[in-house]
Every structure is written in structure tokens, then in C-alpha cells.
Task: inverse folding
């Protein structure tokens, strides 16, 4: 079926063949969700690396604070007894431990008294230096710092980060009593222990962890994207494509296919709704086709009726012009024939009974009578005046006619069966004319069955109301090429002297004058049916 040109062009355009479907729903979903996944996992990897870094820094802060405390406690005794060599040794020992950046002890005035880096000893540092800044940021230096404030991170000499912590050495009663310095009792702070630990290793671990996290996240995301693509293809792209293919098939007119329903989700429901729509469309199309067929049939029937009516009109026209001709001829022949018959009869009366002439004269009288009968029929055929109509029961007319012919020789081997509908309405007609019509049809039927046969006469009511009288015989039938000519005057297939070819044309004229029609149906070798249709008397009354 080709698409209806009245419909709008197809809404669903197929993607160009051979190109990747970058505009497809599955592709866009995968790319969009994949991008979100990559972003989310990158942020998660970064946050996790940061969290790990913070934990490691917390750990190193507490261990630096602990080391500063250890230095302070380890040097307390030697400093109390002013054993600077031992103090120096302790500072060196701790400062050379792996990962240690420096160990220093500052005096109150900012001079480095001990250091794991010997070249620093004796150097006085600026009080705004990063080690001193926490306490000396304000005019009156702080004497106490909380643990977190005591630790700091800065870039060391080797550009690696260093976590350092200070611990304040307070004046104790033992200090002012012992040693050579004897600090005044009101001096609260004697100095500061400063310990630095390299963060190089921790920074490396943080970097490795960050890269590892990122790589793992990326690998996981790629895997998730693949899985996502597969799921999107299975649950979205494939069913949607199959829906699309179905829609294209339906728009091409193939309504007999349905889509497979593979899931109960929205796509499945869409397939169910689509299948239902296809079924509805199919039913609508079948209904339309049925209507079209019925319409075609009706048009065919009406065309046939029109053709029959047209043929009848043509025949009527032809017969009426032939009727005028026949009337003229009959009229002209009538007077000479009457003269011939009169004189022949007179001559016959004057001729002796056993003379040879008498036989010839008798032949002339007989043949002239035959000619007169034909001329009477011709005049009957061309008669213009209307019939003498009276209401007649056609059953009785039929009965009379059948009784008339039954005893004739040509009806000896013919069975006549008359069926009349019990409620047959009466017909307004000229009884003797109708008798003549029925007689013609019965004689024709009998002559078509020289070996015998049957004639079924049937009278029924038809809508209108009209009366149908059918004469169906089992005779030789009429060849199709003769069917259009049998109502013509003088058309006969019978030998000369047997048929005049006027029976049917006269009958046609009579029926027509009664406002009816006469039709024929025939199959060669099977039989012929003549159907006369006349208006019922009630219908004519109603028309008046
Ligand atoms: P006729 O009977 O004198 O020949 P009709 O007008 O009565 O003239 O009939 C014309 C022709 O129609 C007949 O010669 C015959 O060929 C044909 N015909 C009429 N009725 C029948 C019939 N019942 N069966 C076969 N042919 C018929
Ligand atoms: Mg006849």
C-alpha cells in the first residue's frame, strides 16, 4: 500500500545510514551520565587524597610536638647542671635521626644556643622569623601556646616542606638556684626548643595516593561507562529502535505486524499501546475497505440497472418509430387486401364445388386471411390509443390463457405449472390484451421445446407495489447475439410461414402501454425466462 498523499509527510525521519548515531538517545545518555560519573569520581578521588593528607599531617604534627617535648625533657637535666657539651650531644643525636630537619634550642634573646646544624650556633634570629612569630607577633610576647599553634609548616632549604614545632622552656625554681646563669626568678621563659621534621616522604605518599586514587577512579568510571552503555543499549536504545522500526512499518502501511513486548516498564507499555493502536488502525482500515467494497457493489448494481433502463428506452424509441412505419404500411395494404378477399370470396361462392379452380380460390382466401391477420397484428402493434383498463386479478387471466393453450397440439408434451402468490394485488389492465401477451409468451415457450419440457409460470408481488409475472421454460434458449433483437418487429428465427416475428414486439407494446416492462434472461441449451413487471392497481390509484 502506498502512503496517502493527503497525509502530512512522515514525522520520523530515519538517521542517515552508515553514520554513527551521535544524536541518538543512547549515545547522549551514555555521554552525559559518563561525564557526570567522571566528574564525581574525580572529585571523590581529590577529596579522599586531601583527607588522607590531612590525617598524615595531623599524625606528623603530634609526633613533632612529641619530639620537641622529648628534646626538652632530655636536655633538662644537662642544662640544669650547665653541662652544655652533653646538651649539645643530645641535640646532635636527635637531630641526626632520619627524617629530622633540625633540632634547635633558642635562648630568651633569640640566639641559637644549640643546634643539630653546628654552623647555626650563636646566630641570632629575627624575632619575626617563622619560628618566633607565633609568640612575638604582639608587643608583649606570649608565654604560653596551645599545641596546634606550636606547630607550623614551611618550605625548607631543599624546597621540601617541613613540619616544625616549638616548645617553651620555662624558668623553674631549680634553674635560678643552679648553674652559672641564675636567671632572675621573675623571668618566666628561659628559651625555646625548635624541632623540624621533613614532610618530603609524607608529601610523596600524598601525591602517590592522589594519583592512585585518580587512576582507580578513572578505571572504575571507564568500566562503569561501558556497563552503563550496555544497559542503556539493552533497556533504552534497542527497544526504542524496535519501536521506531515498527512505527516506520506502520507508516508504510504494514498494519499486520506487532512489536514484541519484552518488559513491563515505560518502553514495554509504549509497545503495548503501539500494538493496540495498530490493531485499531487495522480494524478502521478493514471497515473502510468493506465500505469501499459495498459502495463498489452498489455502483455496479446501479450501473447495471441504468444499462437495462437505457436499453429499454432505446428499444422503446426504435419500436415507436417502427410502429409509425408499420401503421402506414398496414393502412395502405388493408384496403387492397379487403378487395382481394371480397372478390376471392365472391368468386369462390360462384365456382362449382368439385372444380379445380375452387381449390386455388380457397388457397387465395386462406392466404389473404393470413395477410389480414398479420396486418391486424401490425395495427395492434402500432396502435396509439390507450388500452381499456379495468381492475383484473392476474391469476384469473393466467388461468384463462393456460386453459386456452393446453389443448393445442404443440402443448401435448409441455407441462405448465402456475404459481400465484396468495396476496397478489390486482392490476389495472386491458384483460384481453394481457391474455394476448401471456398467450404469445406461452406459444413461444412451447415452440422453443419441440421435444417437450416444462413452463413455470409464477406471479409474485414486488416492492412498489408491483406485480411480477415470470414465464420460465426449459427450451433451447436464445443466443446472446439475438437477445437484443427479439423485440424487433419481424425478427424471427422460425421458418417462413411459421413465425411472423411480431409476437414479442406486440407484447412489448402492450406492456409498455400499461406502464410496465418486459425483460428476458436466457441460457442457450437450458431455457429462457421472460419477466413482465406491471404496477399494481393500488400503486396507480395512489399516483392519481
Ligand atoms: P415468432 O414467434 O413469430 O418468431 P416472436 O416475436 O414471438 O416471433 O419471437 C421472436 C423470436 O424470439 C423467435 O423467433 C425466437 O427465435 C425467439 N424466442 C421468443 N421466445 C422464445 C423462447 N421462449 N425460447 C427461445 N426463443 C424464443
Ligand atoms: Mg411468437
Result:
Amino acid at each position: 500500500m502506498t502512503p496517502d498523499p493527503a497525509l502530512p509527510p512522515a514525522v520520523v525521519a530515519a538517521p542517515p545510514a552508515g553514520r554513527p548515531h551521535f544524536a541518538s538517545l543512547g549515545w547522549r545518555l551514555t555521554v552525559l551520565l559518563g561525564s557526570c560519573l567522571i566528574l564525581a569520581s574525580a572529585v571523590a578521588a581529590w577529596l579522599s587524597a586531601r583527607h588522607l593528607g590531612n590525617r598524615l599531617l595531623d599524625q606528623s604534627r603530634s609526633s613533632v610536638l612529641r619530639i620537641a617535648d622529648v628534646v626538652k625533657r632530655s636536655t633538662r637535666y644537662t642544662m640544669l647542671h650547665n653541662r652544655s657539651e652533653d646538651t649539645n650531644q643530645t641535640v646532635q643525636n636527635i637531630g641526626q635521626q632520619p627524617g629530622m630537619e633540625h633540632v634547635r634550642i633558642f635562648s630568651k634573646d633569640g640566639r641559637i644556643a644549640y643546634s643539630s646544624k653546628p654552623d647555626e650556633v650563636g646566630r641570632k634570629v629575627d624575632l619575626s622569623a617563622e619560628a618566633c612569630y607565633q609568640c612575638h607577633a604582639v608587643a608583649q610576647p606570649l608565654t604560653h601556646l596551645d599545641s596546634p599553634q606550636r606547630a607550623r609548616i614551611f618550605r625548607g632549604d631543599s624546597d621540601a616542606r617541613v613540619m616544625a614545632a616549638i616548645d617553651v622552656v620555662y624558668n623553674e625554681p631549680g634553674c635560678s638556684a643552679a648553674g652559672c646563669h641564675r636567671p632572675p626568678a621573675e623571668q618566666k621563659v628561659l628559651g625555646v626548643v625548635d624541632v623540624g621534621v621533613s614532610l618530603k616522604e609524607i608529601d610523596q605518599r600524598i601525591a602517590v595516593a592522589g594519583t592512585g586514587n585518580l587512576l582507580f577512579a578513572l578505571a572504575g568510571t571507564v568500566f562503569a561507562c561501558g556497563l552503563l552503555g550496555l544497559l542503556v543499549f539493552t533497556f533504552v536504545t534497542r527497544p526504542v529502535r524496535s519501536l521506531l522500526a515498527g512505527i516506520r512499518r506502520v507508516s508504510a502501511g504494514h498494519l499486520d505486524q506487532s512489536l514484541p513486548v519484552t518488559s513491563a516498564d515505560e518502553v514495554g507499555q509504549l509497545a503495548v499501546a503501539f500494538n493496540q493502536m495498530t490493531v485499531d488502525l487495522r480494524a478502521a482500515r478493514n471497515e473502510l475497505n468493506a465500505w469501499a467494497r459495498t459502495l463498489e457493489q452498489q455502483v455496479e448494481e446501479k450501473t447495471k440497472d441504468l444499462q437495462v433502463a437505457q436499453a429499454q428506452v432505446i428499444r422503446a424509441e426504435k419500436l415507436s418509430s417502427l410502429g409509425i412505419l408499420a401503421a402506414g404500411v398496414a393502412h395502405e395494404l388493408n384496403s387492397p387486401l379487403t378487395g382481394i378477399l371480397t372478390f376471392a370470396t365472391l368468386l369462390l361462392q360462384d365456382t362449382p364445388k368439385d372444380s379445380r379452380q375452387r381449390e386455388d380460390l380457397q388457397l387465395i382466401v386462406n392466404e389473404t386471411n393470413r395477410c389480414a391477420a398479420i396486418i391486424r397484428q401490425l395495427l395492434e402493434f402500432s396502435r396509439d390509443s390507450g388500452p381499456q383498463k379495468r381492475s383484473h386479478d392476474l391469476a384469473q387471466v393466467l388461468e384463462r390463457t393456460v386453459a386456452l393453450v393446453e389443448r393445442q397440439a404443440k402443448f401435448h408434451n409441455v407441462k405448465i405449472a402456475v404459481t400465484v402468490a396468495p396476496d397478489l394485488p390486482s392490476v389495472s389492465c386491458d384483460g384481453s390484451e394481457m391474455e394476448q401477451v401471456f398467450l404469445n409468451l406461452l406459444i413461444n415457450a412451447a415452440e422453443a421445446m419441440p421435444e417437450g419440457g416444462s413452463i413455470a409460470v409464477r406471479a409474485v408481488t414486488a416492492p412498489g407495489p408491483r406485480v411480477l409475472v415470470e414465464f420460465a421454460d426449459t427450451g433451447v434458449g436464445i443466443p446472446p447475439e439475438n437477445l437484443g433483437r427479439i423485440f424487433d418487429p419481424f425478427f424471427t428465427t422460425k421458418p417462413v410461414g411459421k413465425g411472423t416475428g411480431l409476437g414479442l414486439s406486440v407484447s412489448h407494446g402492450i406492456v409498455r402501454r400499461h406502464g410496465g416492462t418486459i425483460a428476458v434472461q436466457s441460457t442457450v441449451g437450458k431455457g429462457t425466462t421472460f419477466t413482465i413487471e406491471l404496477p399494481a392497481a393500488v400503486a396507480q390509484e395512489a399516483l392519481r
